[in-house]
């Protein structure tokens, strides 16, 4: 049987959240969907929009998903999809915003803590494991004394938006590399780079 990957873009559903920092996972999922020419539609067994395709001819099958629960409940749909498609935890890739990385940094890693990220916390709990791949999209720390919870639910600044399309594209490249060539290759290729490199 073909190897399959589940690529999950994390975010909040609803138009008011579309441009939020917290929704960068959705942005990356939408870009990947465009690259592989699939339209995401409601899944019959999970509260998520899902599409299936391949990132490279003859490459592994990819199930692309955007959970339609709020961020803190993302794990339920992810676990339901993993079960439905029989995808092991090690082949699940979560794309998410990361406060602990500076803006413009995109990194891949396997497992580890959730860093206070409610979407990851929900996934780890529902999957019963932390050993899935994370593609971390750095958004940096909030300025001054702004509450991180407010910061992640605010839109990218106009200065950040100048780089955003390029960075979402890079994050999609990282996901593609993980799927087609493995996490280590993706780490070697992308983990040391910042904006504009």
Automatic annotation (TrEMBL):
Q: Which reaction does it catalyse?
A: an N-acyl-L-alpha-aminoacyl-tRNA + H2O = an N-acyl-L-amino acid + a tRNA + H(+)
Q: Where is this site: Discriminates between blocked and unblocked aminoacyl-tRNA?
A: 12
Q: Which residues bind tRNA?
A: 17, 70, 72, 118
**Alphabetically ordered keywords of this record:** Cytoplasm, Hydrolase, RNA-binding, tRNA-binding
Q: What is its EC number?
A: 3.1.1.29
- What Pfam families would the database entry show? Pept_tRNA_hydro
Domain of life, per UniProt, equals: Bacteria
Signal sequence annotation: none
Describe its function.
Hydrolyzes ribosome-free peptidyl-tRNAs (with 1 or more amino acids incorporated), which drop off the ribosome during protein synthesis, or as a result of ribosome stalling.
Q: What is this protein called?
A: Peptidyl-tRNA hydrolase
Recorded source organism is Phytohabitans kaempferiae
């Amino acid at each position: 049987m073909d190897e399959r990957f589940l690529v999950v873009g994390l975010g909040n559903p609803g138009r008011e959240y579309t441009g939020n920092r917290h929704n960068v996972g959705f942005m990356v999922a939408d870009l990947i969907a465009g690259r592989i020419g699939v339209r995401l539609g409601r899944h019959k067994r999970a509260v998520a929009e899902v599409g299936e395709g391949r990132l490279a001819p003859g490459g592994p099958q990819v199930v692309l998903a955007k959970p339609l629960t709020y961020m803190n409940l993302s794990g339920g749909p992810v676990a339901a999809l993993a079960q439905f498609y029989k995808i092991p935890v090690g082949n699940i890739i979560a794309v998410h915003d990361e406060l602990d990385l500076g803006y413009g940094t995109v990194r891949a890693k396997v497992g580890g803590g959730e860093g206070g990220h409610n979407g990851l916390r929900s996934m780890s709990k529902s999957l019963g494991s932390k050993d899935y791949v994370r593609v971390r999209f750095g958004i940096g720390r909030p300025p001054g004394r702004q509450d991180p919870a407010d910061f992640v639910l605010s839109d990218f600044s106009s200065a950040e938006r100048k780089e955003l399309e390029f960075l979402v594209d890079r994050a999609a490249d990282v996901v593609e590399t993980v799927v087609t060539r493995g996490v280590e290759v993706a780490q070697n290729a992308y983990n040391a780079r910042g904006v504009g490199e």
